[in-house]
Amino acid sequence: MTDTWISRRACLGAGGGLAVVAVGGTLCAAPAPRDRLPSGDAFAPWTSFDDPSLAGTPFALVAAAVLAANPHDTQPWLFHVGDDAIDVHADVSRNLGAMDPYLREMHLGLGCAIENMALAGPPNGYAVRVAPVAGSVIGIEARDRPVLAATLALSPQPPGAADPLHRAIPHRHTNRYAYDRARGLDTNWMDAARRLGETDGVRVMFLEGAARDRLESAMIDATRSIVADAPMIADSDRWFRMTDAEIDAHRDGPTLAAAGLSFLQLAFARLFPVSAQTSHAAWLAQTRDTQLATAPVLGLIAARDRYDRPATIAAGRCWQRLHLDATLNGVALQPINQPIEMIDRERQTGRGDAFAQRIAELTGPDWQATFGFRAGVCARGGVASPRRRLADVLVA
Ligand SMILES: Cc1cc2nc3c(=O)[nH]c(=O)nc-3n(C[C@H](O)[C@H](O)[C@H](O)COP(=O)(O)O)c2cc1C
Fold first, then answer.
1. Residues sharing a CB contact under 8 Å with residue 326, sequence separation 6 or more, in sequence order
2. Which residue CA neighbors atom 21 of ligand 1 most closely?
3. Residue ranges, the chain, pLDDT below 50
């Protein structure tokens, strides 16, 4: 697969092309990282985001939704578009099994999509009011039919100015490369990021010093635990798309190109497929020795109850906003959710609550982390992931 390099500066246009990044305490004009868009129709949704034929219709909101972050690129969403509302359904058939036994991560991903829709409303002539379904994700038993997660009420209004985050939607990509550990993040940016979820009962926490190191250990230990848990790692592996043919057929799932591999590692992985055991060992090594070792900052997003459905959607919205804001400010982000996935898994299997306790020591007893991530500055931009067509995610 060939990669097309698109200059973000060119994409954002005169209105806001120059990413302003605040690094090491001083604001400076960053060399704009560039989007990497692999070729193939599975990546077309990234360029049809502002398709003029959708402008001013509710479908423009769905075109924004499908570009959201989501667990393992499962794209677990279905949209019912009505005259004055869009229903967002969890496509529970696209669940991650033992990696997400309570559909908590699925609902985080739906929250990410909902945030993109809320941002796409005003420039397309809609005020958007989000009403999430109440209750706990633990009560959702269905795995064979869509489950309503939220309704977005749309009120027509004259098209208004877009939130600056809106223009970052097609440029936001998870960045799994090595970061520059020597370049810390600007404290003003971090302070603003901490406030992102404030009004929705969600907290963004950045961990530094000893707390950062404890989170790093939990992330490494959780990765080991997942590799050792046969059902978990199998449920994770089945979403990986190793070849162009698989990407074209499925238009979803993690790809080699987006895995953060060096040029040589990527070439080797494409030429010489390895055993599952070798690839799991490589994932652990990459998490520990590259992704965590080079991350100046680790973070958590927490809610009062990590299984509450509205709180989970609010936490997903918060992550999407954080990532869009980071994209505009030259900050690279990657979720690292293994510890929280292990909290769910220990609960599901009755194997105790060791990971829940380790993470609670970092958040305090009043908050429950539902999302972990690393942040930093990276010389390379993240690589786009495949997306399904609009027609695949619309329901009658
Ligand atoms: C709830 C959730 C959990 C995620 N967990 C991880 C993770 O543990 N490791 C990782 O590399 N990416 C993780 N991601 C990122 C997704 O893999 C990514 O959003 C998806 O593949 C689509 O790619 P994109 O974000 O570049 O569009 C997570 C995203 C979400 C929303």
1. 193, 332, 333, 375
2. 73
3. 1-33
